[in-house]
Amino acid sequence: MIETAGNPKESCYTVSEITSLIRDLLELKFFNITVEGEISNFRPSSTGHLYFSIKDEQSVLSVVMFKNRSFGLNFKPADGMLVRAFGNISVYAKRGTYQLICESLVKAGEGELLALLEKRKAKLAALGVFDRERKKPLPLFPTRVAVVTSPTGAAIRDILRVLKRRNAGLNLVILPSAVQGEGAAEAIARQIRRANDFEMGDVLIVTRGGGSLEDLLPFYEEVVVLAIADSRIPVISAVGHEIDTTLTDLAADVRAPTPSAAAEMVSASRLELAAQLAAMRSGITGALQSRVERIRLLLSQFTPDNLVRNFQIYVQPYALEVEEAREQLKLAMERMLVPSRHRLALLSQAMVSNSPLAVLQRGYAVVRAEKTGQALMSSREVETEDIVQIRLHKGRLRAAVKEKEE
Questions:
Q1: 374 and 246 co-located in one domain
Q2: How confident is the model at residue 177 (pLDDT cuts 50, 70, 90)?
Q3: pLDDT of 168
Q4: Which of 3, 150, 169, 292 is 20 to 30 A from residue 25's alpha carbon, by CA?
């Protein structure tokens, strides 16, 4: 800031200073704001950024929405569309202009509607309508497909075109219904229940083409979501474009991004089936051949020569251990027998020395009374003429007592 010499109370700012002050005021004051107005001068750039203005009867505000934020849009902005832009005011100092940096953009009135739909989604989720455990698998080869949609819409034309190309023999049952506007939700739910009551198909497609959020509202209605959840027939939901996700998509057993994709799910192409069968056959054949080769290699190890060799290789270590144990046992027993043999020799010698036969060998004899067989220790034990037996070292004698001395 520069003070003038003539009047000290007057202040003089540079352009940069005043622009900086204005930027600070605006950017701090107008942060996270929502502005409602009509789009004008809409001009998307080649880089993906969106440049436009929003206006009312008296004023115009420049807006820029950068590429990373514009990806989240579920509608295509256009001039004359009433919208609500959420973001921050930013000052572009080089031009001395201000603009809104848009973080999100919705159609006017959609904010309340989206809040209502989120509340309904939370309610249905609490009931378990969207649980993965309750979803049913699609049949692999359905023979009859029921479709709930408008009979004059683009969705049914797309489905017919795909089925004609992929599997013309598939039976198609069309259950006509309004898909937008008043009464559409009740009509769709009624046709879903009718398809179940009369078992009109192996699989049921609920579909319509793209449109605005207001156009897709019947597929957010509770009556349609509950009818899909209660359906015994597996349900494919194919509503709108790929970026659209309705409550029927969450409740259905399978979500298809487009009606054509739903038709492809239920119509197996003959060529694709043939290719899959050929691939399966090749895989099974290869697996069997590989297993047979492994079995053959295993069996080759069981020839007589291999069995003998393997048995010898297996038994040889144990045989060596047994031989070593036998030798150790033999040595241990021999060491244990040495003192026993010595004691036996001493006992034998003592027995020989104390044996009566050894006494007889030295010239002594054993006399026994023949009547009693008792060894005689005294002459009093026999009488004259008694017969006695005499045991000598070699041989025996039988004699009669002729005389005795006491």
A1: no
A2: very high
A3: 61
A4: 3
How many residues appear in the chain?
Answer: 406
| Confidence check: pLDDT of 6 > 60 | no
Please give the tally of structural domains in the chain. Answer: 4
**Cβ–Cβ under 8 Å, residues 248 and 238:** no
Give the pLDDT score at 270. Answer: 61
Residue 285 domain boundaries: 271-301
Q: Are residues 182 and 70 in the same domain?
A: no
Q: What is the CATH number of the domain that holds 134?
A: 3.40.50.261
Domain check: are 264 and 140 in the same one? yes
Token pair, residue 335, equals 């060491």
Is 306 inside any structural domain? no
Q: How far apart are CA 298 and CA 1, in angstroms?
A: 96
Looking at 70, 91, 108, the residue that finishes a domain is 108
Give the model's pLDDT for residue 87. Answer: 94
In the predicted model, what is the mean pLDDT of residues 290-298?
85
Tell me, what's the pLDDT at 358? 66
pLDDT tens, residue by residue, 262-287 = 999 998 756 677 788 888 988 899 88
Q: Burial of 353 by CB count in 10 Å (0-12 exposed, 13-18 middle, 19+ buried)?
A: exposed
Instruction: State the pLDDT at residue 267.
Output: 84
pLDDT tens for each residue of 312-354 = 777 778 778 888 888 888 888 888 888 888 888 888 877 777 7
